[in-house]
Amino acid sequence: EILFQETYHQPTYEQVHRAGPKRNFDYHLTAFDRAHEAGIGDVGGGVLFGLADPRFEVLALMIHNEHLDECFHSGFHTISVPRLCAASGMSLADFPHLVDDATFERVVAIIRLAVPFTGMILSTRESHEMRGKLLKLGISQISAGSSTEVGGYAKRARNEAANPQFYVNDKRDALDILSELMDDGYIPSFCTACYRSGRTGDRFMSLAKSGQIKNVCLPNALMTLTEYATDYGGEAFRAKAFAAIGQNLPGIANERMRAKAAENIEQIKRGAHDFYV
Ligand code: SF4
To answer: Is 3.20.20.70 the CATH number for 1-172?
Structure first.
């Protein structure tokens, strides 16, 4: 479950949520407690940087994470770091706490150092250049080819004009972004193995905190990238992906796991799907 607090600063929260069920600050703040009590082990939080003082927001995020960890043995599975940007029907001049690039880089680096085992998600709102910098500072997940309009993907499929809620800075399509990630030495992963095999909540956190999770992340990344490249890539993309996969395969430390991943990758190239460990 992903749910943004938007801001932990209650007066600002109430100022920007003037009506509707989300207006109740306390109810919104305790949503993850109810999610855990109802059996949802993986929760993802985040604030919209730019609404209130970023130093207050980072501290509040960390205190919230600590509370979840203490009560449910599982803090945030992911933390999202959207930054306030221009949107239809609003003016940025109304917001005194806008976060400049240098401060935003510090925010990402501080969260990464504080919770090294937590996924950090960045949106398409950031420019191509900022995404490159922030990936180096700790972002682990990015979106690509996103639409910020309600029903936007269906409109795109029908080739209709878009009317976005807010403006996206990185307009490149998914293949361009993936290709550049590989140029920079990253392996894009489409893995969802933990959710699918029940490695969630405190079970996931103990593997993540000990670093053991990396033993399955790399084989899963290589297998899912093979599948994506085989299904959606053109000839040049496939060649780049298969070269990167070949270079990274020896990085799987466990010999049996490495042999199994290599065998699965060959099967995926011949049209098989959905391997994961
Ligand atoms: S195995 Fe897959 S789902 Fe689990 S942490 Fe690694 S990349 Fe994420």
So the answer is: yes
